[in-house]
Each structure stands twice: as C-alpha cells, then as structure tokens.
Amino acid sequence: MLLGTPLLEALNRMCYGGIVLDAAGEVLTINQAAIRLLQEKLPNNHQHDYPNWREALKVLLRSQTSVRLTLQEQAWVVVRRDMAGQKPLVLHAVPLGSHVEPGPSTIIILIDLDDTPRPTGEALQKIFGLTPTEAKLALNIACGQSLDEIAKDYNISIATARKHLASIFAKTRTNRQADLMALLARVSILP
C-alpha cells in the first residue's frame, strides 16, 4: 500500500481532495474528491481520457493565482472559482519530509468550501444510537436543509420532524442545529 493512501481515504470521507506527489511534482496517487475538483479545470474533450493530473493541478494553480507552489515547504493557496457565488477552493501543500525519488514527498490537500463533509448513516447509528430515520434526518440537517424542507421531502409533518430532531439532540447531547452540524462534521472522517 502506497504511503498516504489511508490519509487520502480519510480526506475523501471529509470531502477533501488529496494528491500525493513525488519530489519532482509527479502525481503518485489521488483520491476521488481531488479527481472531481481537478476535472472542473480540464477541457471538456479531456475529461474522459486518462487525464494528466499534474497538468490539471498546474491549470488549477494558474487559473486565478500567480502563486508558485514550492513542494518542499508548507503552502496555502486560495483559488477563486469560475462560477459566480462559489466559495474559493483552498489548497494546502504538506511536505512529508522525504524528498527521495521516486517516493512520496508532498501531500496536496484541496478543500472545497462549497462541499459539506457528511458522516455515514451507519456511523451515526453506531456512535449515537440513532435510528435509520433519525440518521437520515441528521444528515439532511448537516447538508443545510431546513426542518420544513426535510418534512416535505420525507412526506412527514413538521411535528414529526421536530420529534425526530428532539430525539437526535438527546442522543447526540446537542441543543441546537448548529451544534449538531459541528458534531457531524467532526465524525465525518469515520468510515
């Protein structure tokens, strides 16, 4: 197993892109969230071919910033998005301390500020003892849906939705939806 693979999987569960680079800047491995974010920068005619992720990363960095990324030191880069209303993409380079070819040298973390980390319903059921229905409702709240929207989507009354939410608050020992969302973001790293 390539060094960094467990980290990339954990980053993926949190909706963070992860790319492991060697000392020359070549991509050794990449997670699904990073693929999704980099594909936004590829021309449409190259999205279905086997893309060159190093070139896609360069395009991303050149798109809205003039910052040159140095792989041997920590760096933070904020990349503005093309679509109006989208929050920027945050890129963080973390050197691993080993700059020996052909091994891993740097991990690039891509943080999509428009994406919400979501734990699995199974994890919520096991950790907090939520029922499957409560877990679904909690996940919808974590995605920013209002109780009215959730009740409408599940064809239940608002009173029933409030009853489920009260049970979720009791089981998670939270008191407000904002506290619940913060808690769910913290456990999103779990499989």
Automatic annotation (TrEMBL):
Residues 127-184 form the HTH luxR-type domain. GO terms for molecular function: DNA binding. SUPFAM superfamilies: C-terminal effector domain of the bipartite response regulators. Coiled coil: none annotated. Keywords: DNA-binding. InterPro entries: Sig_transdc_resp-reg_C-effctor (IPR016032), Tscrpt_reg_LuxR_C (IPR000792), WH-like_DNA-bd_sf (IPR036388). One of its GO terms (biological process) is regulation of DNA-templated transcription. This is DNA-binding CsgD family transcriptional regulator.
